[in-house]
Structure formats: structure tokens, C-alpha cells
Design a protein that fits this description.
- The structure is a single chain.
- By secondary structure, the protein is an alpha/beta fold.
- It folds into three domains: about 55 residues; about 70 residues, membrane protein fhac (Ubiquitin-like (UB roll), Roll), CATH 3.10.20.310; about 150 residues, Rossmann fold, CATH 3.40.50.
- The protein is about 40% helix and about 20% strand.
- The chain has seven helices and twelve strands.
- The protein has a nine-stranded mixed β-sheet with strand order 6-5-4-7-8-9-10-11-12, with helices on both faces.
- Strand 7, helix 6 and strand 8 form a beta-alpha-beta unit.
- Helix 3 packs across helix 4.
- It is rod-shaped and about 125 Å long.
């Protein structure tokens, strides 16, 4: 209906006291227009959500293309990279995003996994968007080298086997066992102890207090100038420690009590005895007595 027609109808309705209706299909038309606008808005929102999901999950924008690692001392970079790759594979299994996506990475879970697998003291994971993964690894403090079943193992201050001795540490320990070089303040104490089976990394070989005793006693001998190659002991609870000294004889000491007096007795004997001949051992475990063979 034209505008003029609408006006005429309006005037007639006015004089007859009837309600005025402007445009028979106007309400229907407005509903259709509103519905069309709503549909368009929903389509735009849906497209935006799909595009955003693709961008986050599949575009690769948040995929880690660089892994920065701080704190490595004895751990190999390749070993850490492999553990990170395995952990990322496990976290992304059966999930729609790329395995190296750091935006959806569970940092706490990765930290726990790496700390357990690398036998590290602590691991911190930090995400630097969009694609850098930073790891800070605090390795367990190496305290002694345990030699058992022809294997050279690193043991930390808590008595846990952290891995196998390699490089300079292995070379130095082998020299001590072969009685070629004495222990120094810069070298790790070397302990030779038999075990039923070679301990695997992560195995608790001794209590922390036992390890501390071994370390402290080695330091005392070194600081007193008592040249020694390494220590032999039967098991972590044994009281008898046999230190291999010059000419390959044993210095037998009771490590269940402070060794200062025992080392002092050893020094006195060497200083006062005339042409001492020690073929097998010198035993200073009994206060006031020295047994030599």
C-alpha cells in the first residue's frame, strides 16, 4: 500500500475511533529483518570461533621452535631434548592440537615428569610466547663416585644414584681405582662397594648421613695430607672403612665414630716408626693401639 493510501486509512480509522494499523506486513517484515541480522551475527561469531580454534590448535603459531635450557652440568643436552619430546607426545596424545603447542602445555606436569626422568633436584618450565620453551634444571649435587660391578656411578648427597660417571669424572675415578693418582680437594671421593646387582639411576644406595660421613672423612684425610686413592667398604652400614694408601696398603678406620684421632695415630706412627714396613694394612680402630701387617 502506498504512503498516500496509508494516510487515508489512518484518517478513516481516526474518525471511526478504530486503532490505527500502519502497514499490514510491517511487523512480519521487521521480524524477518531481525532474524536475518541475528543469523549473520551468529555466522560471523561461528567463523571467528572456528578461525580462532584453528589458529590456536593447528596453525603452528604457538608451536615451540626453540627450547632453551639452563643449569646443565653432567646431564647431556640430547638426553634432555628426548625427555621433553616424550613428555610433549604424552601430553598431546588423543588431543586435537600439535604436540609442541606451548599455549596449552601443562607446565606443572612437564616439570614433574622431567624431574622424575632426569633425577634432577628441581625443574622449572617457563613459556615465552609465542614459541619459546625455557627450562631451568637444577641437577642433584654429585657427591661421590660409587664403583661396583665394574660400573662407575654418580651418587648425590641424598644417597641416590643419579647416573653414570662420564668424561673427566670417569677418567679421574678410574685413575684412583688403578692407584695412579691420589684424591684431591677438587676430585669426587671414590667408593668401591660390592652390590648384588648394578644399581640403576634413581636407586637409593645409602642414607644421606652415610654419604655425608664418606665425604667428610675423605676431606679430613686430604686436609691432613694423608695420601689416599679410594675407599673400600662392604656395605653402607659397615663400620670398617679401608682406605687404599701409598704402596697399596690399607688404612683401616672405624667410621662409626670421628676419625680425627685415628688419622692422628696413623700420622704419629709414620712419623715415629723407624723404617716402617706396611705390606697389607695398618689398623688404627682401637684407641691407643696400632696393628700393622
Amino acid at each position: 500500500m502506498s504512503i498516500e493510501g496509508d494516510a487515508k486509512v489512518g484518517r478513516v480509522c481516526y474518525y471511526l475511533g478504530m486503532p490505527v494499523k500502519r502497514g499490514m506486513y510491517r511487523g512480519e517484515r521487521e521480524v524477518r529483518e531481525q532474524s536475518g541480522k541475528t543469523t549473520a551475527v551468529l555466522l560471523v561469531i561461528s567463523f571467528f570461533l572456528i578461525a580462532s580454534a584453528w589458529f590456536v590448535l593447528q596453525s603452528g603459531f604457538f608451536d615451540a621452535n626453540e627450547i632453551q635450557i639452563d643449569g646443565l652440568r653432567s646431564l647431556e643436552r640430547g638426553d634432555v631434548d628426548r625427555e621433553v619430546a616424550d613428555a610433549l607426545d604424552e601430553q598431546s596424545k588423543h588431543r586435537p592440537w600439535n604436540r609442541t603447542n606451548i599455549l596449552l602445555l601443562d607446565e606443572k606436569r612437564l616439570e614433574d615428569r622431567l624431574r622424575e626422568r632426569l633425577f634432577a633436584e628441581s625443574v622449572t618450565v617457563d613459556k615465552s610466547y609465542p614459541n619459546i620453551l625455557r627450562l631451568k634444571i637444577e641437577e642433584r649435587q654429585r657427591s661421590v663416585v660409587l664403583v661396583t660391578n665394574d660400573q662407575y656411578l654418580l651418587v648425590d648427597t641424598n644417597g641416590v644414584v643419579t647416573g653414570y660417571a662420564e668424561g673427566d669424572v670417569l677418567s679421574s675415578a678410574m685413575d684412583h681405582i688403578a692407584v695412579r693418582t691420589f684424591l684431591t680437594a677438587d676430585s669426587l671421593p671414590v667408593i668401591q662397594m660390592p652390590t648384588d646387582e648394578p644399581p640403576a639411576p634413581g636407586f637409593q644406595i645409602a642414607d644421606a648421613s652415610v654419604i655425608q660421613t664418606w665425604i667428610q672423612n675423605a676431606r679430613i684425610l686430604i686436609s691432613r695430607g694423608a695420601d689416599t686413592y679410594f675407599m673400600k667398604i662392604e656395605d653402607p652400614t659397615a663400620h670398617l672403612a679401608r682406605y687404599i694408601m701409598p704402596d697399596k696398603y690399607e688404612l683401616r678406620i672405624d667410621i662409626s665414630r670421628p676419625i680425627d684421632d685415628q688419622v692422628g695415630a696413623y700420622e704419629t706412627y709414620l712419623r715415629t716408626a723407624e723404617n716402617p714396613v706396611i705390606r697389607e694394612y695398618i689398623d688404627v680402630r682401637v684407641p691407643g693401639k696400632i696393628f700393622v701387617k
